[in-house]
Amino acid sequence: MEDRRLLVKISHMYYAEGATQSEIAKVFGVSRSLISKYLSKARELGIVEIKIHDGSNHPLMNIEARIEKKYGLREVICVPNLGNGPDLENIGEYASKYLLRILKDGQIVGVSSGTTLLSVAKQIPANLNYSSTTFVPIVGGMGDERVDIHANVLVSMFAEKLKANYKLLHAPVMADSKKDKELFMTQTSIQSIFNLAEKADIILVGIGGSPKHSTITRSELGKKYRQYFNELDAVGDICYKFIDENGSAPSNIWNDKIISFNIEKLKEIPFVIGVAAGLEKVDAIKAVLKGKLINVLITDEKTAEML
User: Fold this and answer.
1) Does 145 have pLDDT greater than 80?
2) Which residues contact 138 (CB under 8 A, 6 or more apart)?
3) pLDDT band at 53, cuts 50/70/90?
4) How far apart are alpha carbons 93 and 124 in whole angstroms?
5) Cα–Cα distance measured from residue 225 to residue 96, given in angstroms and rounded to the nearest whole number
6) Sheet containing 271-275: which strands, arranged edge to edge?
7) C-alpha separations of 205 from 22, 38, 80, 127, 296 in Å
8) What predicted TM-score, i.e. pTM, was given to this entire model?
9) Quick one: pLDDT band at residue 217, thresholds 50, 70, 90?
């Protein structure tokens, strides 16, 4: 009875009065770790019952948990569908909030390119202060096309809003040949950017659909390879590298010339956030998940159901 009385008293102080474990430990003259054990014991004995009333507030938690478990992800954030297609503005808002939740000043953040990541950058609140954080581009640029979605532009947007630092990658997304690409990658200025990206705490990537649906295949650069894309066995792209259903980027006439972060090294980054939605991207997202190229997924409800 005395033991039970003690557990009830400690539980009441912690859960009802809001005292910290350290404060309770001082009152009873024991260690904080022992108070933690007492609280665990109180739950085991049914003295304390914890109920979370959140199902109605966030009905998508169940599907998020199922995808997390199925693919072994850190976290899945599922955005409700308000219309027929993906709502990039809404997805960008959810992704920006997640980034700010995990971001700590002094970290390195790698950024890929694309319209989805542009929506994330637009939704970041202005005038925050992360003066010791550095944003780094992880893919080359596509010349004068869609400059607003280039990695260099995106890192500058993030940095401006967060009062952070940023680096620029002065390289095209594609070299003229495999040999030229290898030469580019030996340049000190380019090498230093990718070396810094390998030390990133967080990397943000978009995920492209199959060549038929990919943004890059509709570009001027992509038009030169149109016939080749029809023969390419690819389900999507990440960092401009086309991948197969296992999430691997095989050697081919396209991948061998792309100047971007080594996607196999994504597996070594603590947080790799994939932001993508759309039924045409389901196979690509599955491949990225199968290949363990991301560990956080932010998508919409319809895409999540397909996954």
Assistant:
1) no
2) 110, 111, 112, 151, 169, 194, 197, 203, 205, 239, 260, 261
3) low
4) 7
5) 34
6) 75-79, 296-300, 271-275, 202-206, 108-111, 134-137, 165-166
7) 41, 44, 21, 24, 10
8) 0.83
9) low
Average pLDDT of every residue of the chain: 90
Residues 154 and 140: their CA atoms lie apart, in Å, by 12
3 state SS for the chain: CHHHHHHHHHHHHHHHCCCCHHHHHHHHCCCHHHHHHHHHHHHHCCCCCCCCCCCCCCCCHHHHHHHHHHHCCCEEEEECCCCCCCCHHHHHHHHHHHHHHHCCCCCEEEECCCHHHHHHHHHCCCCCCCCCCEEEECECECCCCCHHHCHHHHHHHHHHHHCCEECCCCCECECCCHHHHHHHCCCHHHHHHHHHHCCCCEEEEECECCCCCCCHHHCHHHHCCHHHHHHCCCCEEECCEEECCCCCCCCCCCHHHECECCHHHHHHCCEEEEECCCHHHHHHHHHHHHCCCCCEEEEEHHHHHHC
Distance from C-alpha of 260 to C-alpha of 237, rounded to nearest angstrom: 12
pLDDT digits (tens, 9 = 90+) for 261-291: 999 999 999 999 999 999 999 999 999 999 9
pLDDT, tens only, 99-115 = 999 999 999 999 999 99
How far apart are the C-alpha atoms of 264 and 257, rounded to whole Å? 16
Backbone CA torsion sign across 123, 128, 131, 133: negative
Confidence grade of residue 41 (pLDDT, cut at 50, 70, 90): very high
Dist CA 265 CA 268 (whole Å): 5
| Separation CA 73–CA 67 (nearest Å) | 8
Q: What pLDDT is recorded for position 55? A: 54
